[in-house]
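Protocol step 4 of 5: obtain the predicted structure for the target chain.
Materials: sequence only (see below). No template structures provided, no constraints applied. The aim of this step is simply to have a reference model before the mutagenesis design in step 5. Sequence pasted as it appears in the construct record:
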Amino acid sequence: MLERTAVTMLGLCALLGAHLRTEGHRRRVGERGYSTEMVVVTAALVVLAIAATAVIAIFVMKKANGLQ
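Step 4 output (structure tokens):
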């Protein structure tokens, strides 16, 4: 049973290696990167989210201080 499992694992590793060496995989790997525009838009959204959180925190703190 152990020998059969080892042979199966080796076979699966060989199939994976063959798949990774194919031309289609190499072509798809290059298309996974983000464009500069996407990075800039994401960074701007993060900055806006942090600013909105800061503004909300200031209003909450003012309201909390006014309750005393």
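Step 4 remarks: The chain has two domains: 1-33, 34-68. Residues 1-33 form one domain.
Proceed to step 5.
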